[in-house]
From TrEMBL:
This is Putative lipid II flippase MurJ. The keyword Nucleotide-binding does not apply. One of its GO terms (cellular component) is plasma membrane. Keywords: Cell membrane, Cell shape, Membrane, Peptidoglycan synthesis, Transmembrane, Transmembrane helix. The chain crosses the membrane at residues 163-189, 209-231, 238-260, 272-291, 312-337, 357-383, 404-432, 452-470, 477-498, 518-537, 544-566, 572-597. Its main location: membrane. InterPro entries: Lipid_II_flippase_MurJ/MviN (IPR051050), MurJ (IPR004268). Residues 56-70 have a biased composition (Low complexity). One of its GO terms (biological process) is lipid translocation. Pfam families: MurJ (PF03023). It is a multi-pass membrane protein.
Length: 616
């Protein structure tokens, strides 16, 4: 999260220069209403009054008014509706790709859970350095620096191609040098930060895993640049589905570990990190068709004089700092998690560091499922549109697009959070409880899931607000807010990690990710004026009411089904039936209610889905 800035005064002056034409000429729909409705009523009343005195004049006025409306208002309304439909369709396509990726991600975690905490703990610990370094070097720049800059070059394909592959080649060189260097630093890093609470065998395994995983950056780095190039050109299909390859590779590695074990000189236990390598290569391969569609064949070039490079670096400097800062917080979180005490149900264990870290990792994936499906999809779909409105100085349509994203996000994320909380144990047992994953670990993971779930609605708003600041070429404010929100994490984590333990760390993360969007929203309101948030309130109240009924139904069904042996959570079938019956009926009731309440965004989503299925 976070970013850079063009001078705020320049942005505001640019906006003011357009106040007299573009904004005024385009009626903007906010919260289901039209901001020009009062003016329209006045025109109608005046025309009616005149009609009583002069019928011919009235007819002429009506004719003129009709022509003006046809020529100005109708095309503007049509353009807005078309843009809204396109935005929802783009978000739906990204969400569809993320759905496939997330389903594979859940399967991946299920396979990893089967290996037990002795393997999964070291594996999850080993992933952090590569992921954080990739975020710091390139992945964090995708929404804040790369997509807005690439979008400016979308009409000049050759210049864009030269820029993209300059960055690809530069990133590849950096990742190669870094991977070799990390190989020698890894022992100290593992013992000091990654796994200080692990036993000697688990520390050794973490060291071996992290050395292998770090070389996946040779593919992960270029993938981030190519993904940004395709998103900037609104090529959402291949980019959305490519991430699934990463999960598929790890699943193959987990199956190899489960089948081979420590046979063949112990090579079987290296299946998971080798699966990461396979998955990252697969990601690159799946982007090739999309690159061909956009005429972006590979070229060996290092054009350090390209004018966009300096812009990217300027935009990304604050983002890089934010990722460095957040990586430090993440490593602190991991450092604490590996040393957290056992909760009551795990008292028979001598050490719970590996189980606690694994529980947080499994719960994180479940949170990322709706997060990727809704929040990330919306933010990536909205960013190019917000950037265009900002470039044109159309501030009202900028706000309208942002509010649409808010309503769509809340429509899906509020019930998702509630559903994960109320059905946490059946979901965890269904997905993970097999092999060496015990019922006690299922309870531990469900506790982490509940404490992570509180942040879900705020994550949707947060991602959209970050996109709004990125569209304004401002990446400094989200960084500064990140630093402030981390104090919320520290205020909960540091006093309670050694007493309450792992649940306190999960809740601290929710506090941090709740504070971030609230502060950003206040700053954006102070910067560009009213966001017309009252337009969200009616839809929000309807969503909350429908969610409350959904929770009551899910909770009641879960209690009732628990008395039937067929629905016992001690079996896979029982867990599956509980989730399907209780979760399915509750979800159906939620959507029936929001449709009955006439929440506008439901019909928009339905239209987007039907269009993608070829039925509309």
């Amino acid at each position: 999260m976070a970013k850079d800035s063009i001078n705020n005064e320049e942005i505001l002056s640019s906006e003011n220069n357009h106040d007299d034409d573009a904004v005024e000429a385009v009626p903007t729909v906010l919260g289901g209403g039209n901001i020009d409705s009062e003016a329209a009523v006045e025109i109608i009343e005046t025309t009616t009054a005149k009609a009583k005195d002069d019928t011919s004049v009235s007819s002429t006025a009506e004719s003129a008014s009709s022509e003006v409306q046809e020529e100005v208002v109708a095309p503007a309304d049509s353009a807005i509706r078309s843009e809204r439909r396109e935005l929802v369709k783009s978000a739906s396509l990204v969400a569809l790709g993320n759905l496939g990726s997330s389903v594979l991600g859940m399967l991946r975690q299920s396979f990893i859970a089967y290996t037990g905490p002795g393997i999964s703990g070291p594996f999850f610990a080993s992933l952090s350095p590569a992921q954080k370094f990739n975020d710091f070097i390139v992945n964090g720049s995708v929404p804040g620096a790369l997509i807005p800059t690439f979008n400016d070059y979308a009409e000049n394909k050759e210049a864009l191609r030269r820029l993209v592959f300059t960055l690809v080649n530069l990133v590849l060189i950096i990742m190669t040098i870094s991977s070799v260097g990390y190989f020698f630093v890894a022992p100290w890093f593992t013992n000091t930060i990654l796994a200080p609470g692990f036993n000697p065998q688990e520390k050794l395994l973490t060291l071996q895993f992290t050395r292998i995983v770090f070389f996946s950056l040779l593919a992960l780095g270029p993938f981030a640049v190519l993904q940004a190039a395709l998103y900037a050109q609104k090529e959402f299909g291949w980019t959305a589905f490519a991430a699934a390859a990463y999960h598929a590779g790890i699943i193959v590695g987990a199956i190899f570990t489960g089948m081979v074990g420590k046979q063949f000189f112990g090579l079987g236990q290296y299946g998971l990190p080798l699966g990461v390598i396979i998955g990252t290569v697969g990601e690159i391969l799946l982007l090739i068709p999309g690159m061909r569609n956009q005429g972006m064949r590979y070229m060996f070039v290092l054009d350090f004089n390209h004018p966009a490079l300096r812009r990217i670096l300027k935009l990304y400097a604050p983002i890089a700092f934010s990722f460095f800062f957040s990586a430090c917080v993440a490593f602190l979180d991991q450092f604490l998690a590996t040393q957290t005490p056992c909760i009551e149900i795990m008292r028979q264990q001598k050490s719970c560091g590996d189980a606690n870290l694994s529980a947080m990792a499994f719960a994180t994936l479940l949170i990322q499922f709706p997060g990727g499906l809704v929040a990330s999809a919306l933010s990536f779909a909205v960013l190019p549109t917000l950037t265009t409105h900002m470039r044109e100085g159309d501030l009202e349509r900028f706000k309208s697009t942002l509010l649409l994203g808010f309503r769509l996000g809340l429509l899906l994320m509020i019930p998702a959070a509630a559903g994960l909380i109320v059905l946490k144990l059946p979901i965890v047992t269904l997905l993970f409880q097999r092999g060496k994953f015990s019922p006690a670990q299922a309870v531990l993971t469900s506790m982490a899931l509940q404490n992570f779930s509180y942040q879900l609605p705020f994550i949707a708003i947060d991602q959209l607000l970050i996109s709004a600041f990125y569209a304004r070429k401002n990446t400094i404010i989200p960084v500064a807010v990140l630093v402030l929100s981390v104090f919320g994490y520290l205020a909960v984590a540091l006093p309670f990690w050694h007493t309450i333990g792992m649940p306190a760390l999960a809740f601290a993360n929710s506090v941090q990710n709740t504070l971030h969007p609230l502060i950003l929203l206040l700053i954006l309101w102070k910067t560009i004026g009213s966001l017309h948030l009252r337009g969200v309130v009616p839809a929000l109240l309807k969503i909350l009411l429908a969610t409350a009924v959904m929770v009551a139904v899910a909770w009641g069904l879960q209690l009732a089904l628990a008395h039937i042996h067929l629905f016992s959570l001690s079996t896979f079938i029982g867990s599956a039936l509980t989730v399907i019956v209780a979760g399915g009926i509750a979800a159906a009731i939620y959507f029936i209610l929001v449709i009955a309440f006439k929440v506008e965004e439901v019909s928009m989503l339905k239209g987007a889905v039907l269009a993608k299925l070829g039925k509309k």
